[in-house]
Amino acid sequence: MIEIEKLISNVKPNRFRRDQSGCSFHARSSRGGVLMAISPRAIGLHVVITGASSGLGAALARVYAKPGVLLTLSGRDKMRLLSVAADCVSAGAEVDIVVCDVTDADGMAAWLTSADQVRSIDIVFANAGIGGKAAIAPPEGEANAVARLIFATNTLGVINTVTPIIPRFVGRQTGHFVVVSSLAGLLGLPHSPAYCGSKAAVRVYAEGLRRLMRPHGVRVTVVNPGFIDTPMSRSLPLPGPRIWSADRAARAVKAAVEKGRSEVTFPWPLRLAVAATRALPSRLVDAILVKHYRRTTFS
Predict the structure, then answer these.
(1) Which residues of 46-69 are buried (b: 16+ CB within 10 A; e: fewer)?
(2) How far apart are the first and last CA of the chain?
(3) Which residue among 16, 157, 215, 267 sits deepest, i.e. has the most Cβ atoms within 10 Å of its Cβ?
(4) Which CATH architecture has domain 4-297?
(5) Active-site positions?
């Protein structure tokens, strides 16, 4: 594996810039950590992943990394993003990274448009989001600022990731959007109303987008993961039933994308548990979830 210090030392000042939107761009890395322009003859997938500095996004980057693939990765933590990039470069992929906030619509549009001009994008993973302990609601309810930040990141962040590329996919009559929602988007939990609402919104958005894009040959897959072993999940004061590793989740998502599935939900025991709530009386479901919230969140 290429050491992070070596990768950082190869970032030349004149190959690093900050655009007016506030996003910081790094030049592409090739095998060996040397920054260089991509060859016009390069072939293979061009995969864009937001929220790639940790968790599912980082795992997705690693499972897609191989020779011929160009990975364009974004995140807010530069050092962790460089670590992921180093792993991907050592696997033979070429990597572009950008430090950017998905709530910055202008910055996202500039970055994605630029990335598509370098090499036509094949797959866009709208994965960035906030959750974990930061999304847990106190007994007195969520503050306005917290709820707005959750929706700005988890919902508008997806829209900021998808919309700049829609005209390009439609024009080429090909492309694949992968929108990461959550099992929490299938059920309103007292633990995190804003988080559940934000994930429900992107799930329905992805469903509508899939139907809108179908005549143009553009695919849309929505991903509804349960508990994944990530720093965000480990911050929760809740037990993690049926927790999956990030690598296992990434491989399941990659397989679903390759099969062209419209939706993938895992793990199946939690999926069945959520489905079962639809068959139970609302009062019973409310009582069970409120009791669980009180017992696990602040005990």
Answers:
(1) bbbbbbbbbbbbbbbbbbbbeeeb
(2) 43
(3) 157
(4) 3-Layer(aba) Sandwich (3.40)
(5) 195
Could you give the 3-state DSSP secondary structure of residue 92? coil
Q: What are the backbone dihedrals phi and psi of residue 171, each rounded to the nearest 5 degrees, phi first? A: -65, -35
Residues 6+ apart with CB under 8 A from 47: 61, 64, 69, 70, 71, 72, 121, 122, 123, 125
pLDDT value at residue 13: 29
Instruction: Collapse the DSSP code of 123 into the 3-class scheme (helix H, G, I; strand E, B; otherwise coil) and give the result.
Output: strand
Q: Which residues pair with 126 in a beta bridge?
A: 179
Identify whether the C-beta of residue 74 lies closer than 8 Å to the C-beta of residue 54. Answer: no
pLDDT in tens, 49-82: 999 999 999 999 999 999 999 999 999 999 999 9
Q: Answer whether 0.85 is exceeded by the pTM.
A: no
Distances (CA, A) of 208 to 128, 153, 181, 212: 20, 20, 14, 6
- For residue range 80-123, list pLDDT tens digits in order: 999 999 999 999 999 999 999 999 999 999 999 999 999 999 99
Tokens of 94: 């070429």
| CA atoms of 74 and 80, how far apart (whole Å) | 11
Query: By three-state DSSP, how is residue 176 classified?
Result: strand
Backbone φ, ψ for residue 220 (5° rounding)? -135, 130
Furthest CA-CA distance within the chain: 63
Q: Contact, 196 vs 295, CB < 8 A?
A: no
